Amino acid sequence: MSPPPVWLMRQAGRYLPEYRETREKAGGFLDLCFDPKLASEVTLQPIRRYGFDASILFADILLIPQALGQKLWFETGEGPRLEPLEDGKAVAALDVDGAADALSSIYETVSILRSSLPGETDLIGFAGSPWTVATYMIAGRGTPDQAPARLFAYQQRDAFEALMDVLVESTAQYLLRQVQAGADILQLFDTWSGVLPEDEFARWSIAPTKALVERLRALGVTVPIIGFPKGAGPLLPRYVAETAVDAVGLDPSVPLSWAVAELADKTVCQGNLDPLLLVAGGDKMLKAVDTIIEAFDGKPFVFNLGHGIVPQTPPEHVGQVVERVRNR
Ligand code: CP3
């Protein structure tokens, strides 16, 4: 059987010494995101090393809140910080119409990439799904369970609904511009969909993602769209059917036999090696690669991790995984 295509979430990042060096040169993480020359350089670094089948634009899902007018900064070693959104008034003050224009340096990165990448290497553009982006906008930081956004959605439902509308429209415009600049595929990261009970999942993960996909199609975007609703579990088939994404990312907790039975005939599956096995390495890692590929034998499938590469990953393990995927 021919090997599936392979790329890895967070394939550009701190586990690579050349990334750390370029980030140093840029000054900070956000400076790196907004410098088209350096951002395209770090996007290309893992392609040069490993020859992945796809490249993912180097940027962040939190650039949209910043472009909407919310203050964003990164505390070294701690992660993102935003000035928390507190109510409907703060939502109404967001600059929906100006957001996509504020991100013009990102489209410049995309266009540099499309002309530097080998023709056979697909370029993936991305954004966060409205729910996941909103969780950071409301809490002002990462939290273990996104309680602030969940509570906000229960207590101030109209304001939360308005925030979803803002995020659907600004994200659609942002992704349209990425595609116009040369992105071949789009991925929507819904990292925090798994904290939602069923009705809330339908309301805040599925419905805004569906609206975003519909809006993109209405704007003339025809490229494939990958949805990644992390932690969605048994709600994955419903997510796929209702959002109309073309492919779905599976996190490491999704059982392979279940995914093959419930999803593989309906969509393209992508995943789902545990990022910590990529840290551990050895036979366990290589066997897990085999098990995943064998499970999806004969089905449309893209090999990936179940979440992003972590900083302590030895770079040589990444090379061993790519080699194993291609030469089994
Ligand atoms: O995958 C790639 O190579 C493309 C680039 C990319 C980054 N972030 C770069 C990044 C992508 C696709 C993202 C998505 C993203 N950003 C998500 C969704 C996916 C996921 O990982 O769950 C989320 C939730 C964010 C928000 C964010 N950005 C957090 C919570 C953090 C801090 C955590 C961490 O890993 O430090 C970031 C920072 C970030 N984004 C880094 C990178 C390479 C590390 C920054 C650094 O260099 O110090």
H and E order: HHHEHEEHHHEHHHEHEHEHEHHEH
The average pLDDT is 97
In which order are the strands of the major sheet placed? 1-4-5-6-7-8-9
Listed once per kind, the bound small molecules are:
coproporphyrinogen III
Q: Name the CATH architecture.
A: Alpha-Beta Barrel
Q: What's the number of structural domains?
A: 1
Query: What does the overall shape look like?
Result: globular
- List low-confidence stretches: none
Radius of gyration: 19 Å
Strand runs, count: 9
CATH domain topology: TIM Barrel
Largest sheet composition: 7 strands, parallel
Tell me the strand percentage band.
5-15%
Give me the oligomer status: single chain
Cα separation of the termini: 10 Å
How many helices? The count is 16
Instruction: Estimate percent helicity.
Output: 40-55%
What is the level 1 CATH name?
Answer: Alpha Beta
Question: Brief description of this entry?
Answer:
The protein has a single domain (about 15-325), classed as TIM Barrel (Alpha-Beta Barrel), CATH 3.20.20. About 50% of the residues lie in helices and about 15% in strands. It is built from 16 helices and nine strands.
